[in-house]
Amino acid sequence: MIELVKKAAKKAGKIILNRRFSTHSVKIKGTKDNIVTEADVLSEKEILRILTKKFPNHNYLTEEFGKSNNSSEFTWVIDPLDGTGPYFSGLPTYGVSIGLLKKGKPYLGVLYFPSLNNIYWAEKGKGAFMNGKRIKVNDHSDLKDTMVGFDLGWMGKREEEVNNLVKPLVDKVRYTPILGCTIAALAYVAQGIYGGYIHWAYPWDFVAGVVIIEEADGKVTDYKGKYIDWFKKDMSVFASNGLIHDKILKLINK
Fold this sequence. Notes:
Elements (H helix, E strand, L loop, with lengths): L1 H17 L8 E2 L6 E2 L1 H17 L4 E4 L3 E3 L5 E9 L1 H6 L5 E8 L2 E9 L4 E6 L4 E3 L2 E2 L13 E3 L7 H13 L11 H10 L4 E6 L1 H13 L3 E3 L13 E6 L4 H8 L2
Parallel strand pairs: 3-5, 11-12
Antiparallel strand pairs: 1-2, 3-4, 5-6, 6-7, 7-8, 8-9, 9-10, 12-14, 13-14
Helix pairs in contact: 1-2, 5-6
């Protein structure tokens, strides 16, 4: 199963990379700062073509085409192009995310970054890998030695997020980078570059990366430290190396 998913991610990544410097017709989805390009749609179609051929009776939850429910214990959760903003702007922090829930819990995940040719994957109980090498979260327990990443939501919500999440930490941790790509930040937690990452978004932004972080010995909860319902429309997520988890939660919940 994992090899098929890696294949699907790389094929989708090739589509995205080949269209990177094309002239895109851009659609606005939801808020005025949420853009969709042809690359998003074509990437998702290719992933679905590959997965539905092999797993026609599974459930699917995707960013662009929505939800199909076949009453399966397995649900594929797909973001065909996370980091559309950086992608459209010429930055390399964008990629493909394919996750699998089994009975509502993250079970398998693949993240592929075509500009960097980096692929991360994990399957429950089998460890986390980047380009074939085992990865682990870092062992930083002192906040001043730890980078904690963020991403911000839509225009009109960002000041509130900065006040509630960034300000409590900005003078406590080593640095607070913002990439504009959720899956890149999740990969950095799993790889040990970040000690933590905080964001509010949708299931397709998180499921694959969460499996990889947990298999890299990290920890994932919502902003309150509680279990996440992955079938909710949206959610808050705090991913960390586990050692700083309670310290960060205490600061952002004062």
